[in-house]
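Onboarding guide, step 5: your first structure request.
Type a short instruction followed by the sequence, for example:

Predict the 3D structure of this protein.
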Amino acid sequence: MRNKARYHSADMPILLQSVPLGLDQPESEISDVLAARLRLPARAIRSFAVVRRSIDARRNDVHFVYHIELALEGGEKAEQQCISRTRGASASFLSRKVEEPIEFGTEPLVERPVIVGFGPGGMFAALRLAELGYKPIVLERGRDVKRRHRDILQRFYREGEFDPTSNLLFGEGGAGTYSDGKLYTRLSDPLCRRVLEVLYHHGADPDVLINARPHVGSDRLPTICSRIRQRIESLGGEVRFECILDDIRVKDGRLSAVHVSSSEAARQDEWIDVGPVILGIGHSARDTLRMLHSRGVRVIPKPFQIGVRIEHPQSMVDRWQYGPAAGHLRLGAAEYHAVAKGAASEHGDVFSFCMCPGGIILPSNESPGLIVTNGASRSARSGELANSGLVFTFDPQAAGMSAMEGLAYQERWEKLAFEATDRTYKVPVQRASDLLNGRMSDGDLETSYPLGGRWTEIASVVPDGVVQSLQKALPILEAKFSGFAGADALITAPETRASAPVRIERDRDSRQAVDVDGLYPVGEGAGYAGGIISAAVDGLKTAAALMRKFAPPH
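The system replies with C-alpha cells like these:
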C-alpha cells in the first residue's frame, strides 16, 4: 500500500471510528482490517493515519480500538460511495476544527509583555508571544530544572531540608514538571492539538498524539520544559528565575508596576514598570494570592477537591482492569477511574483523581512545615505501586468561607499532618482496612513516598467529612474492585491541592482581571484550568487576547 502514514494528515477525508484490533494483532495488520471493514480490496485504500487509540477492557474481551483517517483511490466519488455503503460502520466525512486566526491589535506596546509564573499556562503563553515577535519577559519564583532537580533530590529527599524557592511546585515548568504529565482533557478545542504537538516536538513520545489517555512521564518533562524555555529565549524572550512577585501598583484601575524580589543581586527588590502582565502563578502561590487580594484584585472562593491519596500494588490494579490478560506486554500498567456515588453526603460523590499507574506519591508543599500529597509516574509506568487521589468536592462559599479562608482551611490540615509525623516530612499513613475498623496500623510500612511514611490515624489530619465519606466510599469501591479497601491499600493524607480554592475574576472577552486593566489571570492558580492541557490552552487563549489588543513590536 502506498503512502501509509501513522498520524494526522490534511488530505484524509474519511474518519472510520471504532476499528478493533486484538492484543496479539500487530498494527501492521490495520490495513487488512480496514479493507475488510470497508468491504474493499486493500489496494483501494490510498493512505491512512491513526487518529486515536484506546483500550477496551469491557466484557473480559481486552482489545485495542482505533479511530482512523483514510483516503481512497478514485477520490471523492469513491469515498462518497464508501460512506453510503458503510454508514452502519461509523464511517463519515471528516470535519476538522481549526484554530481562529490571530487578529493583531493596534495599541502600541510601551513595555514588553510580562508573564508571572512558568508553569503550563505561563509557558505556553510565553511561547506563543515569542513566536509572533512580542519578546515576553517571564518572572519565575523558582529555579531552572537542573538546579531544581538537584535541590529536590539532594537537599529535600536525602537531607530533609525543604527549600521554598526550589521544590516540586515552584521552578521551571511549575508543578507539572514533576507530575505524571497526564494530557487527558475533556476540553474540545483545536488548541489542545497545538499543545500536544509542542510537547511532541520538544521531546514527548509521538504516541501522545494518538493515545486516548496520553501522558509524558516525570522523567521526560524536565527536559521538555527546558527545551521550550530555550526556544522562547531563541526568539527574543527572556526567562528570569528566582524572581518573586511580592507587590503590585495599580493606578486609575490599571496595573502600572510590579515589585520583584530576587536572590540575584542585580535585580534585587525592584519596581518594574509594566504594560500587560499575564498572571500564571499556579494554585499554590498563596502568598501572591493574598497580596493580590490585599491590593484590590477581586479573588472569590470556588469549589475545590479535598481528601486523601490511596496506594495499591500495581499488579492488583492490572487484575481489576484486564483480568486474565493482565501482564500482556502490549498493555502496560492499567489505570482506573473510581466513583462512589453519594458517599460524600452533601458534598456528592467520592471519586478518584490524578491516578498514577506504576507511580509514586510526592511531597507537594510549597512552604516549610506542611505535608501535601500528590502523585506522579515515569514514562514507562513500571513501578510496583499505583496511587490515586480519593477526593470529594468541597464548596467553601457554601460553608460560609471567604476566598482567603479557603486557603487557610487547606493550610490548617497540611500543618496538622506535619505535626502528626513529628515534623519530619514523613507522610501520615494508615491501612484502608484499619481506617474502616477504627484502629491504628502497625507492622512493616512500605510506601513510594520518597521521604517515607509513619503510621498515623488519618482521622487526625483530615476534616471529619473526609473520614465519614471514606467510611462510606471504601466499601462501595471494594465491591467494584476486590482489595481496594483491604490491608494492601495504604491511605496517605492530606490531598488538598487537586484544584485551586479561589478564582481571580476576569472579563470574559478581554480576559483581564475585572478590577485591574492590564492584568491577565490564567491557569489553575487563577481558577480557570485543571491540568496541563487546560492550563496551556488557557495560556494560549490569553496570549491571543493580548495580541488582539496590542500591535506587534517593530
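Each response can be followed by summary notes, for example: Confidence is low (pLDDT under 50) at residues 1-10.
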